[in-house]
Design goal:
With about 180 residues, the chain is α/β, with parallel strands linked by helices. α2 packs across α3, α3 runs antiparallel to α4 and α3 crosses α5. It has 2 domains: about 55 residues, no CATH class; about 100 residues, Zincin-like. A 3-stranded mixed sheet has the order 1-3-2, covered by helices on one side. A 3-stranded mixed sheet has the order 4-6-5, covered by helices on one side. Helices cover about 40% and strands about 20% of the residues. The structure holds zinc ion.
């Protein structure tokens, strides 16, 4: 039996163009697997899976591919340089993605001018990623969260909106799916 499901992920965001096709196979007993073919994620699952189990597997694989390809889509160095120039901030010596950053979206080490961003961000809209970059760039100048720091960050006009978005996403992820 074969069923196909197509959906566009993250409808309100421009970050994803993947389509998902799920193939059920009665020969498959336990494990699921997924491959990326062009912009299509093909997921093979055991025939006996419930709709809820299928949804879980689809979420797992789409997030995995989103993160992997989202991270390579975004040129962090160029983006940080552009934002630093626009807001009169320092340019970092290095900026890169990291996984599993203990629920932190980003971190900055002013001493050596390095910035790390959680790769969970790649699934979020660009204007949210830009906020986190501006936040960490501002820490190169001002390590604490004082008034001077926020004056720098608030030059980015979507700061309040982005902070609200991240707070909402953090509670969604804390509650699980
Ligand atoms: Zn901070």
């Amino acid at each position: 039996m074969t069923t196909a499901l197509q959906r566009t992920l993250f409808d309100d965001q421009a970050t994803s163009e993947f389509e998902v096709v799920v193939v059920r196979s009665n020969k498959r007993k336990k494990s699921s697997e997924a491959v990326l073919v062009g912009r299509e994620i093909r997921i093979r699952i055991p025939g006996h899976m419930t709709a809820a189990e299928e949804a879980e597997v689809v979420t797992y694989f789409t997030e995995k591919f989103e993160t992997k390809y989202g991270a390579s889509r975004i040129d962090l160095v160029a983006r940080a340089a552009k934002l630093a120039k626009r807001y009169g901030l320092e340019t970092p010596n290095s900026i890169r993605w990291v996984s599993n950053q203990n629920q932190r979206w980003g971190s900055c080490t002013p001493d050596d001018g390095t910035i790390r961003l959680s790769d969970a961000l790649v699934r979020y809209p660009d204007w949210v990623i830009d906020y986190v970059i501006v936040h960490e760039l501002a820490h190169l100048t001002e390590p604490g969260h004082n008034d001077d720091f926020w004056a720098l960050v608030n030059q980015y006009t979507k700061t309040e909106r982005a902070r609200g978005y991240l707070i909402a996403m953090a509670s969604v992820e804390a509650e699980g799916r």
